[in-house]
Design goal:
By secondary structure, the protein is an alpha+beta fold. It has a single domain, classed as Gyrase A, domain 2 (2-Layer Sandwich), CATH 3.30.1360. The protein has helices at residues 25-35, 67-93, and strands spanning 5-11, 15-21, 41-47, 56-61. A four-stranded antiparallel β-sheet has the order 1-2-4-3, covered by helices on one side.
Length: 94
């Protein structure tokens, strides 16, 4: 099973800075866009200073929503989209 490594740089009640080790623009764009769909996410952006550096995501939240919960929910939704797509592909391939 594949896993993703993270490094939490800063974690407050309503903000977080997290490095996603080895990830590129594709996943970070998808995660950032999905986070911004959450009405209780104030800021979601990622920074990748250099081509060879790990991206850092910055998330701030509102009204008691924790950034970790927002990230976990966004990842769950992304996984659900992938499961739906795989189901459609399997159905068409039969």
């Amino acid at each position: 099973m594949l896993h993703m490594e993270i490094k939490i740089i800063e974690l407050e009640k309503s903000s977080a800075r997290i490095f996603f080790i080895g990830q590129g623009h594709t996943f970070m764009n998808a995660l950032t866009n999905e986070l911004l769909q959450d009405p209780l996410v104030d800021v979601a952006q990622y920074i990748k200073e250099f081509h060879f550096s790990d991206p850092e995501i910055v998330v701030t939240t509102l009204e008691g929503r924790t950034p970790i919960d927002a990230i976990m929910d966004a990842c769950t939704r992304l996984a659900g989209y992938c499961d739906d797509l795989l189901g459609q592909i399997r159905a068409k391939a039969q």
